[in-house]
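Please go through the sequence line and C-alpha cell line underneath and see whether the fold suits the sequence. See right below:
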Amino acid sequence: TGKHLVQLPVATNIKEFFSFFKSPDFSAINNPDVYIVAATLAIVASLETLLSVEATDKLDPLKRSTPTNRELKAQGIGNMVSSLLGGLPITQVIVRSSANINSGGKTKMSTIIHGTILLLSAIFIPFYLNLIPLASLAVILLMVGYKLAKPSIFKGLYALGWDQFIPFIVTVIAILGTDLLKGIGIGMVVAIYFILRKNYKNSYHYKTEKKQDREVVTITLSEEVTFLNKGSIQLTLNQIPDNSDLIIDGSQSKNIDYDVLEIIQDFKNFTAREKNIKVQTLNIPEIISLGGH
C-alpha cells in the first residue's frame, strides 16, 4: 500500500514545483513554545553533526580531521536558508557519509554530486522514487548501522576498561530506549561521572623514600587540580608522618584551584610545624588566605 512506500509530492510543472516551498509564518514569533522547539532542534542537530563528524573522521582512510566549527557554521547557514524555504532542518548524517566513503569518495565533490542527484531526482523522477518501499530503506539503515557498530567495537571498548565501556553501552541503550537527545544526555551524565571520578583519583602522584634518618614524601600535582580534589589532597596531607620531609611539586600543573592552594598553605604554615614536617613547594603560588573562605 501507499503508506509503506516513499511519499514525495509530484509536480506536473515548474510552477507547481515552486508552490511546494512555503514562506515562514512569523505570527508565532511571540510563542515561547517556538523557541523551545528551536533550541531542541539546534541541540539535537549540533550533537548529531558532531558525533557524525567524529565517526566519519574515523572511517576516513586518509585520517583527515574535519574542522567542527566550520561544519557547524555551514549547518547553521544551511538551516536558515532551508527554513526560509519551508524545508526541514539540515544535519550531517553518518549514513550518507559512510556511503560516500565506502563508494570511494575522497573529496567534498562527492557530497556536492550527492546533493545534486537528490535535487534532480526530486524534481524530475519523484514518481519513480515513490515506488521505493520504506522497508528497503530500513534494510540499508540496518546494514550501515551494523557496519558502524560491529561487535569488534564493543569488544575494543570493553578492553579499554569500565570507564570507557559503561558510558558507551549506557548511551547506546538509552538512545534505543528513548530518543537521540535524551540518550546522549544520559550518556553525557554517566561520562561526566567517570571523568570526575578519574579526576578525583588522579589529581596527584604520591612517592615516598628514605633518606638518611628521615622519610621524604613527594607529591606531584597533575595538570589540572580542581576543588573536587581538595578532599583527597587534604586527606593525604593529614597522613604525612611526623618528622618527615615533604615536597609538593606543581611544575606540571597548568591550573591549581584556590581551595587546594589554601589547604597546602595552611598545612605548610600550621600543621607541618606542629608535626615537625619540613615542607618544600615547587611552582606552587602563594595566596592571601581569606580565613573563613
